[in-house]
Design goal:
globular, mainly alpha, 59% helix, 9 helices, 164 residues
């Protein structure tokens, strides 16, 4: 079926006028950032890894919601940089209107916002928020990072081997 191979609402997020504007602002703020930039590649890596983790753990997750959260989880970074508001809170506010504009229901929007709001909270379970947190950390390709030696992440937390 077409829905299984093409996520229309996720593509609508990508094409929503507010989305590329936020991505461009983040890129401006992070132009001189040496470590782990928040790029569309990072957003998609988080979505893909979270989806794989959900499948591996047998969770009945909705792929479109996981991808929506992946694309939107760091979208508030530029507000954190400019106004000091935590990016998960700023991002949830921005994401809410984007999700509604892209056809997500109130319940679906709540589920995506839960992932965005909790993606920085370390959790140890196998529920979707815990896996989403892990996906965010696993998305970093420390093994190929030119700034790896100077990075302040502890060595035991760096992703020095390809896992996903």
């Amino acid at each position: 079926e077409r829905q299984k191979e093409y996520m229309e609402r996720v593509s609508a997020i990508w094409n929503h006028p507010g989305y590329p504007a936020c991505v461009q602002e983040i890129q401006k703020w992070e132009a001189d950032r040496e470590f782990c930039r928040h790029t569309p590649e990072h957003f998609l890596a988080v979505a893909r890894i979270a989806w794989i983790l959900a499948l591996e753990n047998g969770l009945p997750a909705d792929r479109e919601l996981v991808y929506a959260a992946g694309l939107l989880h760091d979208i508030g970074r530029h507000i954190q940089y400019s106004q000091g508001i935590p990016h998960e809170k700023a991002g949830a506010e921005l994401a809410e209107s984007i999700l509604r504009d892209c056809g997500f229901t109130d319940r679906e929007t709540e589920q995506v916002l839960e992932l965005i709001l909790n993606h920085r909270t370390r959790q140890g379970g196998t529920d979707l928020p815990s896996l989403f947190y892990r996906a965010d950390k696993l998305s970093r390709d420390c093994f190929s990072c030119p700034a790896r030696v100077a990075c302040d992440w502890p060595e035991d937390r760096k992703n020095l081997k390809i896992r996903y």
